[in-house]
């Protein structure tokens, strides 16, 4: 039987009704007791890192979860992170960058209704997360929710109440889970050979060096190991801004003090106002000239960005100072930009890391 570490962090799954509203109170150990069927498919230990509504998750918590998995990596076959749904997509993306190339699966799940609720989805989500975590062909960071398995960089919360709250954006589902059967999407039906070999070498999986342990010019990305890589640094001076009709271009000047990078959600396939009254070109150029990072993406959930299509985007299509989000989710862009700026020191390095696909986060341009 596979041995799993259940990492509890709070969320609705752990919440109970209080006078102030739903509040996380149940521990991971208590949650597991509600699903006795877990014992039929795995052995497990629980650990409680925090017990918070995911509204209060911060980048330092992502680092804490990644560190917990790193420290326990050799002792378990898989990891389940119990998490609130509201920011689960951000955490799943962040873990995809902080823990790369993992032959052991890391699965996030949670629920729309508390574990103690009469019609809860929590039991099935936890059970199916364990089922997927125990499967020999699972690896890397995934979200299991409402019978869908999504890549950690592609998950998106699209519903506030329904049980099928998550969807995979611009990328196929890894699998569907019907009751206790995993139905994999064709290209995800086999764990890659490099991961199999790594696992066959048993407990002595040589973790690749942390980025901070690599010499200055060689990032962990370039390490010759094909094994799991853990990272410990994020730059959280990154923010997202959605363009809205009438937004004033001088907004960026107000952001320069607190932020190193801006992810701008443009209109449609890539429209940025350029009328005489509202022209963003100068303001954005000023941002770039200060040495700051500018990532352009779309505020439309599906199908991604192409700045070359319209006159209102073309000025940025070939701008060397702009990073293009392509078909990535905003959640993944935020986490990736924090990770990239945590590792890279030159514009060239930033660009190279940003455009390198990680855990299927973007299609190669
Ligand atoms: N369904 C949930 O888990 C929502 C909750 N507010 C959270 O994100 O922690």
From TrEMBL:
Residues 3-182 form the L-asparaginase N-terminal domain. It catalyses: L-asparagine + H2O = L-aspartate + NH4(+). The keyword Chloroplast does not apply. Pfam families: Asparaginase, Asparaginase_C. The active site is at residues 12, 85. One of its GO terms (biological process) is amino acid metabolic process. One of its GO terms (molecular function) is asparaginase activity. It is an enzyme of class 3 (hydrolase). Transmembrane segments: none annotated. PROSITE patterns: ASN_GLN_ASE_1 (PS00144), ASN_GLN_ASE_2 (PS00917), ASN_GLN_ASE_3 (PS51732). Keywords: Hydrolase. The keyword Oxidoreductase does not apply. Its EC number is 3.5.1.1. Substrate binds at residues 54, 85-86. Residues 237-354 form the Asparaginase/glutaminase C-terminal domain. Belongs to the asparaginase 1 family. This is asparaginase. It comes from Fannyhessea vaginae DSM 15829.
